[in-house]
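Reviewers of the previous submission asked for a worked example of the structure-prediction workflow described in the proposal, so we include one complete record here. The input consisted solely of the amino acid sequence. No template or homolog information was supplied to the procedure at any stage.
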Amino acid sequence: MEPIDELLQKRFSPRAFEDRSVSRETIRTLLEAARWAPSSFNEQPWRFLVATRDDPAGFEKLLGCLVPGNQEWARNAPVLMLSVAKLTFSRNDKPNRHAYHDVGLAVSQLIVQATALGLRVHQMAGYGVDKARETYGIPEGFEPVAVIAIGYSGEEMPSSRTRRPQGETAFGGRWGEAY
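From that input alone, the workflow returned the following C-alpha cells.
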C-alpha cells in the first residue's frame, strides 16, 4: 500500500452519529469546499439541497425520500443533503456528459473538508429519485445523484477496510495490464 494523506486514510462512512448538531457555519464551510471543485468548462453542475435536524419538518422531508433501511440510521445524522447534477452546459444547452463526474468531485472535496473538521460523511444511493424530484420540485435538466448524511461519528473507524488492489484498477499499456 502506498502512503496517502492522513485525511484520506481517516475517511469512512458511518451508520451511527452522535446526537450533536453541526453549525450552519460549518455546513457552509463544507459547501464552500465543494464550490471550489474542478469541473468541465468550469460549469460547476452541482447543486445541493440541505436539511438539518434543527428544522424538523425540512429534515423529515428529505429523510422521507430515503428507502426504509437508510431511514433507520440516517435519521440520527444531524445533516442530510441531496446532491443534484445539471445535465446540460449553461453556455450552449448541450449535454454535459461529465456532470456526474463533476458532482462527485465536489462531494469528494466536501468529504475531505468534513474529515478535516472531525465530521464523517455517508453517501447513499438508496432513495427515491422520483420522490426527491417531486418533493423538491427539481426541474427538468437536473438529476438527483445521492443523499449524503453528515455528522460526528457515533462509531469507531473500522480497523481494517478492504480495497481492490491497485493493480486491478490502474492499467498501463493495455486494459488489464497492471500499471
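The domain at 6-168 is CATH 3.40.109.10 (NADH Oxidase). We consider this example representative of the routine output the project will generate in years two and three.
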